[in-house]
Amino acid sequence: MVNFIAIDLGLLVLFIVVTSIFLYNKRKNLAQDGWLMLYRTKNGLKLINYFGKNYKKTLKSLSYVSIGMGYILMIGITYLIINSVYLYFTTSIATTIKAPPIAPLIPYFPKIFGLQSFFPPFYFIYFIISILIVATVHEFSHGIFARRYGIKIKSTGFAFLKYFPAIFGAFVEQDDKQMNKKSKFEQMSVLSAGVFANILVAVLFFVIIILYFSAAFNPAGVIFDSYTFTIVNASEINSINGIPVINPTYDGILKLNLKEEGLNKFNVSGRNYVATKNFLERQKGTNGLLLMYDDAPAINSDLKGAIKNINGVNINSREKFTEELMKYSPGEKINIISFDEESEKKYEIVLEERPDNKSLPWLGVGFFEKDISGIKKIIYIAIFSFKNPNIYYESNWEFSQFIYDLLWWIIIINLLVGLFNMLPLGILDGGRFFYLTIFGLTKSEKTAKKVFGIVSYFILFLFLILMLKWLFMRF
Length: 475
Description:
The chain is α+β, with helices and mostly antiparallel strands. It has helices at about 5-25, 45-55, 55-90, 95, 110, 125-150, 175-180, 185-215, 250-255, 275-280, 295-300, 320-325, 375-385, 400-420, 430-440, 445-475, and strands spanning about 30-35, 35-40, 155-160, 170-175, 215-225, 225, 230-235, 235-240, 245, 265-270, 270-275, 290-295, 305-310, 315, 335-340, 345-350, 350-355, 355-360, 365, 390-395.
């Protein structure tokens, strides 16, 4: 097994050493700005000038798209923040998620905050490559559109954290006086150009990741969502672990001598179910309606992981799984190979009769359709249009997953930067963009400044109450 963390830390050390040597050799081009070291260069100016001067018609047309994209992103990020506040105050999300609602995108944050089930690993090398792509594309796009509208670019370069050059960003230094003299349309075109470029890069890498995934991975198993289950009424339970009960209630059941570990068996109106004591305790407040697992072969055998093989036949789809299972009859024994927690496990399971059709075999695993709609459905389709969440994939090459996760992070960070930069806050592109919008609508500089100030403080207030709510639930 390749130790990706060791490789990552080795690459980090190499990057810091090479960058430090480079900056030392170019120290004449460095300028200190607080905690940052600015490396200014003229190298990118020729490229910026070339596109800015030779593709004026194309850039003018793209300006309308860029400004439109800016408004979409601004509305989108504002909605996400307001919706996050609503969820934090109306649901249990603040207690179930350990990570703070506002946190810097730092390497290894999924592991630090216990979010491995939500995000793939985020190595230092992912951070460095993603930020290099995001910052360079973002700033150069600003520069190209600025040159299109006759705004002088003084220099380009990179800003490095003084004592840890692995934290860096790019910049394009424009003539602010010339920028402020341009029309509202031209200024908004320049301001939205960076996030527009980030979205284009995200789309480009999404196409790349689809092509890469089809070449680097093969379906090699099916992942079931859960064991089959049923909702039962506590008052209808006839016996627990073979012992009859009379007039049972939820609280009364928990006071009985249930097994602390393993499955407890319940008979409800002649049908058997199973559940652990801990599983039942977590259902307090459900008015006596309890979710219990069906007393089926899968849960009784503790079947886990992705089902890869049934009696020597490889399983690579739900259709293949169903087809193979239907070859057998209730009472027959099958051998299953699954992959769970980086190792294969073998099971010998006797199939039972399906409760709704006793002639059919029953294993007792479930595949559930995702109940999603609206923007969640769009995101779900975008993520899984090429990767079925119920399929286990095996890589064709040793570093397939490492590269796949890198591509994934490049997409996500470009989207995040595009969204975040369009917040109507003064230090971001979205701040000036929003101010120009209000100024264009009201024709009053005083009104524009007032509305901009109110909205900025409102956004900051939302951030504050999110953090306070999260801290309150932690302590």
